[in-house]
């Protein structure tokens, strides 16, 4: 829990960017967090709460205090025989995929489509993580969070979190005001009575490739999602990246129809009020897929199998990656008249 000085954050961000924090400390409990928040360096600010560093682009050294959330714990806290559900409580410092694996081992379903999403449990509600037809809010019950200003522990209901597409109140009105310490999810126990969600994307095709032809189990769906993600997305341990860098934009039906008349292959998915368009498709059409910038093999660029992913091949700076992101935004705006917004937090 002791504050260290001048600590490299390279091991603590999945882009692998070598920037320094003026002060750095880890906390493993609510009480340790309270003590750190009361220390003079933290009081002087600025403050950054860090989970897995998988949704973060650091563009310069951090002049304040970085506190790494390592609160652990996985526990089934209650069961409801009438609804065949169980409440699972997870410490915010647990890895998200570790939570998914734990739930599957306990024969609980609901998280399988969110397999292999990088990061920690505490970061998941901040942006309402989602993938393959599922979002955190689908199973979310409540969370516990500590007020930075007062040290008061508060419980937030699903409604109070204000979930939207990759959004929550913690990215809006309550940004930088709370530290998530635990999350409680409501998962299904009687999996045989609840069909799995295997209709999104390439899940069914992948299940067939894996030899799973009967009604897939939650474990089967998880296995398919893991297979898909590993085939499309680079491993941060090998190539620095933060997963999907941009959100998928939503456009009006009229805008989509106009673009479809010009780009016959444009995919789209109906959503309330319009159509969601894959940002990766737009970026690829704008010519950025597989782009490399820098000396030699290129220090940074866009992944060659998934245009949504910006990568650090080694030696890149956060400033260079931010400039590339801005260039992509301008190009997509010019070609399609669509504004892309980063999903990654840019510091």
Task: Walk me through the structure.
The chain has 347 residues and is α+β, with helices and mostly antiparallel strands. It has three domains: 4-69, Uridine Diphospho-n-acetylenolpyruvylglucosamine Reductase, domain 2 (2-Layer Sandwich); 74-232, Uridine Diphospho-n-acetylenolpyruvylglucosamine Reductase, domain 3 (2-Layer Sandwich); 240-346, Alpha-Beta Complex (Uridine Diphospho-n-acetylenolpyruvylglucosamine Reductase, domain 1). It is 24% helix and 26% strand. It is built from nine helices and 20 strands. The strands form six sheets. It has a five-stranded antiparallel sheet. A hairpin with a 4-residue loop joins strand 6 (74-80) and strand 7 (85-91). Helix 5 crosses helix 6 (218-232).
Number of DSSP-assigned strands:
20
Q: What's the overall average pLDDT, rounded?
A: 93
Give the CA-based shape.
Answer: globular
* Quaternary status: single chain
By DSSP (H or I, 4+ residues per run), the number of helices equals: 9
User: What helical percentage do the residues reach?
Assistant: 10-25%
Distance between the termini: 24 Å
Low-confidence stretches: none
The main β sheet shows up as: 5 strands, antiparallel
CATH class of the largest domain: Alpha Beta
Annotated CATH topology of the largest domain: Uridine Diphospho-n-acetylenolpyruvylglucosamine Reductase, domain 3
Q: List the secondary-structure elements in sequence, H or E.
A: EEHHEEEEEHEEEEHEHHEEHEEHEEEHE
* Overall number of structural domains: 3
Strand-pairing-aware structural class: alpha+beta
